[in-house]
Design brief:
Blueprint (H helix, E strand, L loop, with lengths): L1 H9 E8 L5 H11 L22 H13 L2 E6 L2 E6 L8 H7 L5 E7 L6 H12 L4 E6 L8 H12 L2 E4 L1 E4 L7 E4 L4 E4 L13 E3 L6 H7 L1 H17 L5 H5 L3 E6 L8 H11 L6 E2 L4 E2 L7 E9 L8 E9 L2 E2 L4 E3 L4 E3 L5 E2 L6 E2 L2 E2 L4 E6 L8 E3 L16 E7 L5 H14 L3 E5 L4 E6 L3 H14 L3 E5 L4 E7 L2 H10 L4 E3 L5 E5 L2 H10 L3 E4 L13
Parallel strand pairs: 1-3, 1-4, 4-5, 5-11, 6-11
Antiparallel strand pairs: 2-3, 7-8, 8-9, 9-10, 12-13, 14-15, 14-23, 15-22, 16-21, 17-18, 17-23, 19-20, 24-26, 24-27, 25-26, 28-30, 28-31, 29-30
Bound molecules: guanosine-5',3'-tetraphosphate.
The site of guanosine-5',3'-tetraphosphate has 19 residues, from α2.
């Protein structure tokens, strides 16, 4: 028990999120450099799909390969074991990102100082807000002329609906960028554009009193004066930083820096390990699970198909939530009601996949799977509950799946089911399963599906557009009323992968009207409507 507590307190599991191009990959790489997980810059390849490369299947394969390798990056820093869970930046893979966020305890959000808060950032923040995930903001690219820092802070508060508290403050931007003043320990870090190495220590200047002339010497009189005014203003406008509202997801500390120049990253990391939460409790449909509980439990938040189509096995990513996971021990697969054990569980330490014997809350374990897992599956030592917070969101594009090779219909069925288990697509069925509707967040996924069905299952298909805009999951207190509704609206009713009924709305107007006309039916925006217990994550 004592060892478990020590292990839990050591762990910090988080995700870096941003709108594509804000600098997530660059920041990840610098953090890994600090952790000694990689030796030189450039080791973490951007896992984004190149702009305009939607038809480049090699690119898709490459992306899949890289994203397996960099899905989880673990390293040690100052006695803490840090797990970075990678999130795809591309909008078409947003659902994958949302699911990964169920497995983190906090996030670092990167914002490009030139572009400010972008649309994908807003969406990601909504997901964080749903779970009160603590957020640290890193305003990046200070070496470019960006928006005024005060305006940026206002924009973050307005668009992301979270209070902010700057913990560092920039002295100019772009070509005149001189460094950041650390508000939490009154020291100044001077910027050198060439500071790409890890030798930043020597550039630090401790300033006990801002009126000291060493400040003027360091940055020049004008900028020194400006900094004095800025600091005075900040300290009078903002309350001193408090970790409680941060941990509750209501206050985001803000850092300024330049990831590519490795500037401001160490401050971020050092503060992160001090304030970011260790593994937190998690809600299930039965009760809240505490990480300190002696018995093991965990859930699958991501599944990756093997890149070699000859091998059908997949890697399921399991987040350990409580107790201790042990190799070769039997665990209960709650949905399948069967016992499973794992002889080759892997860790993701320093990007090398190693077989591990045990794992603790906060860790992510890779499990080789021959088709037992779906996203959201729970493993326990026997107690029956399912982890919550891994909902399906409504797809944005719906298409009818048409088999173009009748000899291969079995392969097509199997393939599309597996892609749905992996979370690549959402599959809805109509007319007792004879009509299959595929829903995705982006067009790119349809190309991925077609390609993978062809290459991995030798099945061919085409897609016909359908005029739906949203899927809503349905419930009603009176099952008869729900059955009547489904009968009446049968053209717009389908079932999801778990046989739950969904309403496929053609426009927001029809959805509103139907809602009004059928007040006894509840239309849910996500598949997770059975939530009973609420956790603090
Ligand atoms: P992402 O994962 O969030 O999509 O962003 P990524 O790190 O790939 O960075 C996007 C672009 O922004 C990259 O340039 C990267 O070099 C640049 N960048 C990252 N941090 C900074 C910074 O602090 N200052 C400046 N000026 N640029 C930064 P690119 O030209 O798209 O790619 P590359 O050819 O440099 O790899």
């Amino acid at each position: 028990m004592k060892q478990q507590l020590t292990e839990i307190n050591k762990r910090r599991t988080f995700g870096i999120i941003s709108h594509p191009d804000a600098g997530k990959t660059t920041l990840t790489e610098k953090l890994l450099l600090f952790g000694g997980a990689i030796q030189k810059a450039g080791a973490v390849k951007s896992n984004k799909i190149k702009r305009g490369a939607t038809s480049d299947f090699m690119e898709i394969e490459r992306q899949r390969g890289i994203s397996v390798a960099t899905s989880v990056m673990a390293f040690e820093y100052k006695g803490k074991l840090i797990n970075i869970l990678d999130t795809p930046g591309h909008k078409d893979f947003a659902e994958d990102t949302y699911r990964t966020l169920t497995a983190v305890d906090s996030v670092i959000m990167v914002i490009d100082c030139v572009k400010g808060v972008e649309i994908q950032t807003e969406r990601l923040m909504e997901v964080c807000r749903m779970r009160n995930t603590p957020v640290i903001v890193f305003v990046n690219k200070l070496d470019r002329d960006g928006k005024d820092p005060y305006d940026l802070l206002d924009e973050i508060e307005e668009k992301l609906l979270i209070k902010v508290r700057p913990l560092s403050w920039p002295i100019n931007m772009g070509t005149h960028f001189k460094g950041v003043y650390k508000l939490y320990d009154n020291s100044l870090r001077l910027f050198r554009a060439s500071a790409r190495q890890l030798n930043e220590e020597d550039e630090e200047l401790v300033i006990k009193d801002l009126s000291d002339s060493i400040l003027d010497k360091a940055v020049g009189e004008r900028d020194a004066e400006q900094l004095r005014e800025d600091v005075e203003l900040i300290e009078s406008v903002y309350e001193p930083f408090d970790t409680m509202p941060y941990l509750a997801g209501n206050l985001a500390p803000v850092f300024f820096g330049s990831a590519i120049n490795n500037f401001g990253v160490k401050e971020l990391l050092d503060t992160f390990i001090n304030i970011a939460p260790p593994p937190r409790s998690r809600p299930t449909d039965a009760r809240i699970i505490e990480p300190t509980e002696p018995k093991f439990s965990g859930f699958v938040f991501k599944i990756h198909a093997n890149l070699d189509p000859k091998h059908r096995d997949r890697i399921a990513f399991l987040r350990v939530c409580s107790g201790k996971f042990e190799r070769n021990k039997f665990y209960q697969h709650i949905r399948l009601e069967k016992k499973l054990r794992f002889s080759n569980p892997t860790s993701f330490m320093a990007q090398k996949k190693n077989i591990i014997n045990d794992a603790y809350p906060g860790d992510v374990v890779g499990l080789y799977d021959s088709g037992n897992f779906k996203i959201g599956d729970t493993l326990t030592e026997g107690e029956v509950f399912m982890f919550q917070g891994i909902p399906s969101f409504s797809p944005e594009i719906f298409k009818l799946l048409v088999n173009t090779d009748p000899m291969k219909s079995k392969q097509l069925d199997k393939g599309i089911k597996q892609l749905s288990d992996e979370g690549v697509v959402q599959l809805f069925r109509q007319q007792m399963g004879s009509k299959k509707i595929v829903g995705t967040v982006g067009e790119l996924q349809f190309e991925v599906i077609q390609y993978r069905l062809q290459h991995e299952y030798k099945a061919s298909c085409r897609f016909e557009p359908l005029p739906f805009y949203k899927a809503c999951w349905l419930t009603a207190d009176d099952p008869q009323k729900l059955a009547d509704f489904c009968k009446r609206k049968s053209n717009y009713i389908a079932t999801d992968k778990d046989d739950n009924p969904v309403f496929l709305a053609q426009t927001s107007w029809t959805l509103d009207v139907t809602r009004r006309d059928y007040p006894d039916i509840v239309f849910h925006e996500t598949s997770e409507f059975k939530r009973q217990a609420k956790g603090n994550y």
